[in-house]
Amino acid sequence: MKALSSLSPEVRQYLLVTGNYWAFTLTDGALRMLVVLHFHTLGYTPLQIAALFLFYEIFGVITNLVGGYLGARLGLNRTMNIGLGLQVLALLMLTVPAAWLTIPWVMGAQALSGIAKDLNKMSAKSSIKLLVPDSQQGMLYKWVAILTGSKNALKGVGFFLGGALLALLGFTGAVLAMASVLALIWIASLFLLKKDLGKAKAKPKFRDMLSKSRAINILSAARLFLFGARDVWFVVALPVYLSTVFGWDFWLVGGFLAAWIIGYGIVQSFAPNITGKKSGHVPDGRAAFAWALALAGLPALIALGLGAGWPAQAVLLGGLMLFGVLFAVNSSLHSYLIVSYAKEDGVSLDVGFYYMSNAMGRLIGTLLSGWVFQAYGLVACLWISSIFVLAAALISIALPKHGDATQQPD
Questions:
Q1: What spatial distance separates the first Cα and last Cα of the chain, rounded to whole Å?
Q2: Per-residue pLDDT tens for 225-272?
Q3: Are 391 and 225 contacting, i.e. CB atoms less than 8 angstroms apart?
Q4: Which of 6, 243, 297, 310 has its CA 20 to 30 A from that of 304?
Q5: What is the pLDDT of residue 313?
Q6: pLDDT (tens digit, 9 = 90+) per residue, 375-394?
Q7: What secondary structure does DSSP assign to 148-174, as a single string?
Q8: Dihedral sign, CA of 91, 93, 96, 101?
Q9: Membrane-spanning residues where (predicted)?
């Protein structure tokens, strides 16, 4: 406590924001894995499982669109605490007797969780920018990288945690345990998070939510297809396939998906070095096209390998690990470009519009993951993934091209 009290107010707020985000991310990842595995064991079809996440993704789209507007009017401390409180409520909704866990009830709980997740994410990422002076862009980049990389790694840990808690405590016990811990963190945040953080002096107009930037509109469209390409196999199809075809138990399914997300987070942290930022090369639209094109063929190759009868575990697991590496670079490159374009255009609310497209891609991918897998199998999901990434690459051709000298790395 003495060490914490000696830190600057900005650093203490950063640690609090990051701690809130970490705790939320753990419960978010664990809850997704709990729902997929638990309702699969109850006999739900892949399409029904996908439907359980329908409201989660739909309300994520809406929340991302209005999140920047709400944060500017209410303050980021309030939107973050609202997000934490809603997640506690969503978890408690799932502790009811098993007979009450109907599809509409679970979809309602997932709707609250979707709102909570995107309020929390928007608040965390926006808060850090406000805690660092504009003149210290190197520190800002470092803090954002720590938050983003650790978030994705912890989401992977959450996947493993969900499988482990389901095996150890059962569904109700696991959800109740997470709700209890997160409630304590929420209460602490209500007292400790700085009041009126990020509250705008000039109230933004409702129409300001929509982007007027051509570059951000194009990047948002590419982002939609990129994340749809991931979730079309990752959300429902892959966990069910691992459980039914490979015969893996909860521990193995959760462990593999956790390893994938953790590895994704680690690679994402180093992606700026991979794309040349450390050496002074600033990525632009050409880099977004090239990296998406490199990723586009990989799901198709995995599908061809599975269709040809090659060893399924080696082809699928090895291929998806490589997909994770390339996808992390693509995602990190997009994250860099959105900051670059928003800064050039001077429209901070464009970031919320961009993440709305990200959520829309997850929504489309989630629905397709359940329907296509149930009707046609995992190979079909992989072909659609490849088509989606190719669409993201082709859209990226229209992104602006900047000379290497236009910006220098911080």
A1: 32
A2: 999 999 998 888 898 899 889 998 877 887 788 788 888 888 877 776
A3: yes
A4: 243
A5: 92
A6: 999 999 999 999 999 999 99
A7: HHHHHHHHHHHHHHHHHHHHHHHHHHH
A8: negative
A9: 21-41, 47-70, 82-103, 160-193, 248-267, 288-310, 316-339, 351-371, 377-399
Q: Hunting for tokens 């006999």 — which residue is that?
A: 43
Contact 260, 239 (CB under 8 A): no
| CA dist., res. 317 & res. 309, Å (int) | 15
Q: Which residue has the tokens 């309030």?
A: 78
Q: What is the pLDDT of residue 45?
A: 82
The CA-based angle 107-111-116, given to 5 degrees, is 145
Supply the pTM of this predicted model. Answer: 0.77
Rounded Cα distance between 363 and 230, Å, is 11
CA distance 409 to 340: 12
Query: Looking at per-residue confidence, does 185 or 80 come out higher?
Result: 185
**What's at 40, amino acid-wise?**
H
For the chain, domain boundaries: 9-194, 208-401
| Identity of residue 3 | A
70, 206 contact by CB (below 8 A): no
pLDDT band, very low/low/confident/very high, at 405 (cuts 50, 70, 90): very low
- How far out from the chain centre does Cα 112 lie? 16
What gap in Å lies between CA 352 and CA 27, rounded to an integer?
23
Could you give the 3-state DSSP secondary structure of residue 257? helix
**How far, in Å, CA of 173 to CA of 91, rounded?**
11
Q: Topology of 9-194 in CATH?
A: Growth Hormone; Chain: A; (1.20.1250)
Mean pLDDT estimate for the chain: 80
Q: Note the Cα 199 to chain centre separation in Å.
A: 25
> Which two tokens mark 170?
């059962």
Q: Which of 176-185, 201-210, 215-224 has the lowest mean pLDDT?
A: 201-210
Q: 78 is written with which tokens?
A: 């309030």
**What are the DSSP E strand ranges found in 127-233?**
none
Contact between residue 234 and residue 369 where contact means Cβ atoms under 8 Å apart: yes
**Are 260 and 316 within 8 A, CB to CB?**
no
- Asked whether this chain's domains 9-194 and 208-401 adopt the same fold, the reply is yes
Residue written as token pair 């862009």: 137
Q: Could you say which of 1.20.1300.10, 3.30.9.10, 1.20.1250.20, 3.40.50.1820 is the CATH number of the domain covering 208-401?
A: 1.20.1250.20
Cβ contacts of 86 within 8 Å, gap of 6 or more: 112, 113, 115, 116, 119
